[in-house]
């Protein structure tokens, strides 16, 4: 058996990260009910009723489940695109700040490093904000003590951090270290970061309509409870396993939709926000270790013009 086939079977029988623990109780209940109907039929009690199959057509239930799953995955994918934009905009903004803002002394370099760390702090704070978690020690390492104190009482920590970055850019423009055009371009990238924060908040705070969720669960339960009456005459003692299998399939699809509806949590099926934030932090650290060309030239006493000649 090839490694790919082995991996396929390993994933197929994996419990961690699946919805099996979530739906196991419901599947067991439906299977037990199917067994109960089989017992009644065995003792010649008339329970078979094929006419019940028309109450909830399979196609109707299937369309509802497909819509539920597609809607949930659309939210999941939109969240992933928003975080992809956060990564890209952070790279663009950090690179532009590192190169465009002039350094007149060592203090300016230290300020730029702090601002670049604020970009990492923005991503970490966004993650914590979406998970309704308090600011933690990882965020404390990325900001000053006074800033961390403010973040602890802020209603929207990532928005507060975005304000500090914007304030820094404005100050550098007024001090002549950044021209107006550059400042406006950097502010546009920062605005895109805030837009992605808003997109994630929209996903988080706009859940699936409750009436739809209730109606779908009711139809699922009715379908699984009526199905034994339709198949007991043909399957007899196989009714319970058949009902368990059908309920496993249907409840599993519905549970997957619920699982990925909010992609910002800490479950195995949620977005890997911790890894994304770590990637952003490594990108910033790598950038800080690189000296722009103009700065390398000045360090050796050679002007940029002389380098070109």
How do the helices and strands line up, and which of them pair or pack?
Layout: H1 3-12, H2 20-42, H3 58-100, H4 106-130, H5 137-140, H6 145-153, H7 157-174, H8 180-204, H9 210-235, H10 239-261, H11 273-288, H12 293-299, H13 304-308
Structure description:
This protein is mostly helical and 309 residues long. Helix content is 76%, strand content 0%. It has 13 helices and no strands. The chain has helices at residues 3-12, 20-42, 58-100, 106-130, 137-140, 145-153, 157-174, 180-204, 210-235, 239-261, 273-288, 293-299, 304-308. Helix 2 (20-42) runs parallel beside helix 9 (210-235), helix 2 (20-42) runs antiparallel to helix 10 and helix 3 runs antiparallel to helix 4 (106-130).
Number of strands: 0
Mean of residue pLDDT values: 85
Q: Strand content of the residues, in percent?
A: under 5%
- The proportion of residues forming helix, as a percent range, comes to over 70%
Characterize the overall form: elongated
Let me know the largest β-sheet.
Answer: none
Find the structural class using helix and strand composition: mainly alpha
Question: Could you give a quick summary of the protein structure above?
Answer:
Helix content is 76%, strand content 0%.
Task: Name a few traits of the molecule.
mainly alpha, 309 residues
């Amino acid at each position: 058996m090839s490694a790919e086939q082995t991996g396929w079977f390993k994933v197929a029988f994996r419990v961690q990260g699946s919805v099996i623990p979530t739906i196991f109780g419901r599947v067991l209940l439906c299977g037990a009910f199917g067994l109960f109907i089989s017992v009644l039929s065995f003792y010649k009690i008339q329970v078979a009723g094929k006419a019940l199959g028309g109450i909830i057509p399979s196609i109707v239930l299937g369309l509802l489940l497909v819509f539920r799953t597609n809607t949930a995955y659309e939210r999941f994918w939109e969240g992933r695109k928003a975080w992809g934009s956060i990564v890209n905009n952070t790279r663009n903004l950090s690179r532009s700040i590192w190169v465009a803002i002039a350094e007149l002394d060592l203090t300016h370099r230290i300020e730029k490093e702090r601002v670049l760390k604020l970009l990492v702090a923005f991503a970490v704070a966004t993650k914590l904000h979406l998970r309704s978690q308090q600011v933690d020690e990882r965020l404390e390492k990325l900001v000053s003590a006074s800033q961390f104190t403010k973040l602890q009482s802020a209603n929207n920590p990532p928005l507060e951090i975005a304000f500090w970055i914007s304030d820094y850019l404005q100050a550098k423009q007024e001090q002549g270290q950044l021209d107006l055009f550059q400042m406006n371009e950097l502010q546009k990238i920062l605005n895109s970061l805030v837009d992605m924060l808003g997109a994630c908040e929209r996903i988080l705070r706009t859940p699936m309509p409750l009436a739809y969720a209730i109606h779908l669960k009711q139809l699922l339960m009715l379908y699984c409870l009526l199905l034994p009456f339709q198949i007991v005459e043909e399957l007899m003692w196989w009714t319970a396993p058949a009902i368990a299998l059908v309920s496993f399939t249907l409840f599993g699809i519905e549970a997957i939709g619920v699982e990925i509806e909010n992609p910002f949590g800490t479950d195995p099926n949620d977005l890997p926000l911790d890894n994304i934030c770590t990637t952003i932090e490594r990108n910033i650290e790598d950038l800080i270790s690189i000296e722009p060309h103009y700065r390398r030239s000045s360090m050796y006493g050679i002007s940029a013009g002389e380098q070109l000649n």
